[in-house]
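Notes taken during the Thursday session

The instructor put the following on the board and asked us to keep it in front of us for the whole hour. The protein is Transposase. We were told not to look anything up and to reason only from what is written here. First, the residues (175 in total):
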Amino acid sequence: IKKFDTVGTLKNKKRSGRKPLLDQRQCRQILGVVAKNPSASPVKIALESKNTIGKQVSSSTIRRRLKEADFKTYVVRKTIEITPTNKTKRLRFALEYVKKPLDFWFNILWTDESAFQYQGSYSKHFMHLKNNQKHLAAQPTNRFGGGTVMFWGCLSYYGFGGLVPIEGTLNQNGY
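Then, after some discussion, the predicted structure tokens were revealed:
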């Protein structure tokens, strides 16, 4: 009754709560570690926090600080590296054929063979990046490795051809 008379409500006042474990400087140090190595997991950063900021913190604290700093976790997409020489050849080819008339493409058959890995690492890799850095989340890969199966396929102006499994290697006689 006394509380209601003085405050006007029976609800408890908001308390100040526990002081933050990390000050702003230590938060910036953690963000610096993430900026240098975006693929480091919060668990790894937490384990190294004693050396980095002089204080042991949990991985949950690291995740909260990353979230407060607008970092998001992205799955790293896999990309195939293209050499500068190959980029030049591709561009030259595209510029040569871009102006060809439609009836030119009626007689073109595109063929390719590719090996696909059926054993190996399918694990996802994560990176902590800000929204405007999402394009950096790429992991170079090797297309061929481990157990593989090879297929040959074709397409033309008229549509797709069949997909043919290839035993062994494909040479000029196999085509």
